[in-house]
What does this fold into?
Amino acid sequence: MNRTKPFAIADAHELLIQGVMDYAIYMLDPTGRVLSWNPGAEQIKGYAADEIIGEHFSRFYTEEDRVAGVPREALRIAEEEGRFTAEAWRVRKDGTRFWAMVVIDPIRRNGQLIGFAKITRDMTEAREAQLKALESERRFRLLVQGVVDYAIYMLSPEGYVTNWNAGAERIKGYGAEEIVGEHFSRFYTAEDREARVPWMALETARREGRYEAEGWRQRKDGTRFWASVVIDAIRDESGELIGFAKVTRDLTERRQAQLELEQSREQLFQAQKMEALGHLTGGLAHDFNNLLTGIIGSLELLKTRVSQGRIGDLDRYVSAAQGAASRAAALTHRLLAFARRQTLNPRPTDSNRLILGMEELIRRTMGPQIGVVTFLSSRLWPTLCDPNQLENAVLNLCINARDAMPSGGQLRIETSNVTLDERDVRGQEVKPGDYVVVCIADTGVGMPQEVIDRAFDPFFTTKPLGHGTGLGLSMVYGFARQSGGQVRISSEVGVGTEMRIYLPRHEGPAAAEEAQPELGVAPQAEHGESVLVVDDEATVRMLVTEVLQELGYSAIEAADGPSGLRVLQSDVRIDLLVTDVGLPGGMNGRQMADAAREIRPELPVLFITGYAENAVVGSEQLEPGMHILTKPFAMEMLANRIRAITSGG
Ligand code: ADP
Ligand code: MG
It folds into this structure.
């Protein structure tokens, strides 16, 4: 075995000291002259061994220290007390200063002082870092002290206040001197203390590191404020809990503002709802008045005929009254649909036939600027749904499409069969299976995503006040869902919208179409004076015609503005125009009358209007020879007015 020869201990020592670079380690003789010098000393102080050995160590001290006799004093203390330690400025060879940590130990042999061992460390950087830390801590303390918007303070692990900032004083009303040492639970309300809330808060912070809450807290004067509170547990390096940092903010004003905002939003929503309901009921009242005019008038005429003993032709009045009454019933049905309480009357339905039956109405509703095309699948399955409701739904979608194309465009109505499998219905409310799709597509303005998201909400509308009720789509949706189907929207802003109603397939044939009761046919005009009657309500038309015949006039009937105007533009004799104001076909009664007056300047006009249309006619600024009769009215009243007008009244 070839073992390396061990160093003598003294040699090892010497090597070690020579090797150390971070410490200046050297010896002084009893008078303070340098006897030895290691590379650490050279590195720190800047002198090489050969230029410093034999020199007095006081040159490492600052001018001030030398004048004050510090080097001598240091050696004296080391000799007398066994050690001298210091932290102070020392000077390098190049004159720069460094912050030194110094230890001087005396070395004795046989009780005789033979010199000193000196160790010096350069602590400049460490000291700077420490100063910085102290400075930032000081600044932070000042910051916390100065913050007035937040109460920032600390609690002992048991919940006693240990310090207090300006914000805490401002928010809670206590000065630091009166609150430090008190338990923080006094900031809580009596109820909260009763319920142990403060203690549970500390427990939560202890367990989870943080506790956060909003709630009422109490000021010194007993008043309450709405606080947002954060409590953080503070632990030392070993994990021991040393206290809690607590930050509290007074949010009373903000909460107040928030409550007010919520309240005014709620009020606005209520107002909008009332507005929409007002609009809705106004429209319905108008429709009802029309229908009541039909019913009351029929009954009145019935009574007159019976009293005259002319009982041969009474059926017409009965069925006219019945027709109007059943349409009134349909209207209440619609009302119930709004309330989602409709009793649906599902029947096997051929959607194609239903759409074909509505096509004319839809075209008229769309007006001349909108083209209407239909693509109806020739082998469309029947569906089981309430046909009246489907009609309503289709009409609602068409009207929305029209509103989305204010400067014209194309409306496409399409029907098709689809089979939805598990994948198609994933995440949706319908079952897989066979469906009939009725698609209403437009080339209009389209909907952004946030409108799509809310389109089915009742009362959601983007239309100006008084134009939309926001109930159309909610009704369509309610109908589709109640029928076991659904509605889907695909829409792109600036491109257009496709609304698809999915209705479950019905296995079996569609029911045969029910015969619609034929309403009164206008009697032939006799001789003499003639009156043009324009009203889209056949019953009203018939009744007015009857009254006219009673009075000895002959009557010509028209169902909308354009066809009425055509009659007026022909050379047929017309002595009086009796017209409804709200008319289909893109021209209301007032506009038609104005156009007629261009050709027949003296033509007397009698408007018969529902209440909602008074504004359209503008009763104050009626021209001479124009009159108004408001629905519903008694037939006798109508007769009187006509008599008065035609006799020049
Ligand atoms: P309303 O028509 O009374 O506004 P709806 O429930 O029928 O109420 O429609 C709700 C909203 O959905 C409309 O105000 C509109 O913003 C949007 N919308 C419906 N249909 C269309 C469409 N075809 N194109 C663009 N937007 C539409
Ligand atoms: Mg609508």
